[in-house]
Amino acid sequence: MQETTNAATAASKKLTPLEKKWVMYDVGNSAFVLFASTIIPIYFGSLSGNGDGLATILWGAVSSIVALIALFICPIFGTMADFSGKRKFFFLFALIGICGCALLSLPILTPLLFAVLYIITDSCLSSSCVFYDSMLSDITTEDRLHNVSANGYAWGYIGSCIPFIVCLGLVLGVPDSIMSMQWRMSLSFLITAGWWLAFTLPIFKNYKQKHFLPKPEHPIKDTFIRLAQIYKEVKQNKKAFLFLIAFFLYINGAYTIIKMATVYGQDKLGLDTTMLLLALLLTQIVAFPSAIIIGKLSKKFEDKHLIFVCISGYVAVSLFALFLKQQWQFWLLAFVVGMFQGGIQALSRSYFTSIIPSNKSGEYFGIYDIFGKGAGCLGPVLVSGCVAIVNALGESLSAITAIMNLDLIPIPLLTIAGLIVFFFVAKMPTTKEDAAEQSEK
Length: 441
Prior knowledge:
Radius of gyration: 21 Å
CATH class: Mainly Alpha
Number of strands: 0
Oligomer: single chain
Number of helices: 19
Strand content: under 5%
CATH topology: Growth Hormone, Chain: A
CATH architecture: Up-down Bundle
Number of domains: 1
Largest sheet: none
CATH superfamily: MFS general substrate transporter like domains
């Protein structure tokens, strides 16, 4: 009877009620992600002072600190997620992040205090997502992983547009005579925090953990012991290990473009702020149907082939970004990024879920987030470093920089490297059953 029910669920194209509630958290936290990649960098630039790449360098440093923190905490929380209690830790970090987003609305914050509070908020978002990603094997069946994961990103993209449009209307549409820019920004932070909270509650109330390990007598000590063990297991699972390396490299390009686009376009290229924000709104709108389409294509084509196509798309985008000089080119870049952004994130998450043991999904996703957040650290650091070098060399590179954005060269190099590594990963025959057997050794 249970097998018949599962078969019927798998055959259905519609999301189950629990799957929908899981997807809702993507809708909620994506509002902050979009806000943080568009308006917040520009706002931070106004606090710290724009010009000569200073805002780009500072924002790159802030983004890198966030990634470094996640680099250390995510594997620890990932290990904790495989014991019972995943639900409460998920909500704890989500709630701290939501409160941090609300506190960013305070008009008395200095640039330093704003940066510190932002780092805390974004770090808690990353922590909550470790628990959230590991829920995927609990809320759906293996044959629906790719579709449900794709729906999460897709609805996250389109859902986040609603509060973003409201905030954009406040920031750009309300004149200073009615409300100052500071208070408009404060209200925008509160709207984003409220949206995040509203879409966090459904999965918190309804999620029940199915796959978990026995709770240890000494949770903290055993967490670190298991963390050491899982590192060994990942190395033994060669396909998972090489995939993580490929993921680290190619997701660098994706995250760096997303995180640095507005501040680089405004600070280095002098593009119109309003047009930059609207172009990135286009990215979110395009990403919605693209992620849905890729989720459906995963039923007809092997996921490794789809991932290869998405990485190739990002290679083309990153090469195009080297010659970005005008507003229309930024709009084209935003459109193409939207085509591949949702697909590459959704497929990566579900592909990794399919090659790891279900009862250790939290531990493995802790490692997964190390590589993901490490990419979020390396990309902005390399771009910020290149900006500083190009500025220092000045006129000696003027002939080249007039044609090409040399400071963006790390992005295509990393995405091409990721494409090469994934090519070898795709040839490996390891199955999920093999991964489970290796974890038991």
